[in-house]
Amino acid sequence: MGYTAIVDYGVGNLKSVANALAYLGQDSQITGDGKGLELADAIILPGVGAFPDAADKLRASGLEGPLLAQVGRKPILGICLGMQLLFERGVEVRPCRGLGFIGGQVERIPTGLKLPHIGWNSLHFQGNSPLFDGLDEGAYVYFVHSYYGAATRPEQVIATTDYGLPVTAAVQSGLVFGTQFHPEKSGEVGLRILENFVKLGV
Q1: Residue 79 near residue 185 (C-beta atoms within 8 A)
Q2: Catalytic, out of 96, 117, 182, 195
Q3: Active-site residue, 184 included
Q4: Which residue is catalytic, options 80, 92, 145, 195?
Q5: What is the pTM of this model?
Q6: Which of 45, 134, 144, 171 could cross-link to 178 by cystine, CB 3.0-4.6 Å?
């Protein structure tokens, strides 16, 4: 039986993701090694903090190349800031290059509501994605963020949430997925999303 690699590049809520996968009976390995990504069945890229700091640490870790090498070979899931890194660029603090899997840039949410956007909010699905198999429209998940992915290709946005305006909640490009929310903190809905993701790598 294979495992899901959780990318350790010095930024991220690694243990809570590993604990959620363990609850599902899924093996995972927290790894900062390119070989660990190569041997995995699926990869999760977590992240907390500011976009440029995370992008710099990912590149300094030497894991950007090994991660890029796995695109199209196995499922990859970016969570929260990890999802934002999937975009072409971010403008938080300073302009910074992302991984470029998703077209567009990460911008501050243009809302009059309080930021950061913290707490439970509902999902509105845009088309069908295997990530959301078995979930009902309006399912609630947990968010903590002030920036969002402004996608240039609407078809890459697979879910939105409302926070004064529609905000990108999840993205997909082939086998690359991203959730702005934290599935590992989103109860049964989040566990179902993680289970759906891991199954894609089997």
Answers
A1: no
A2: 182
A3: yes
A4: 80
A5: 0.96
A6: 171
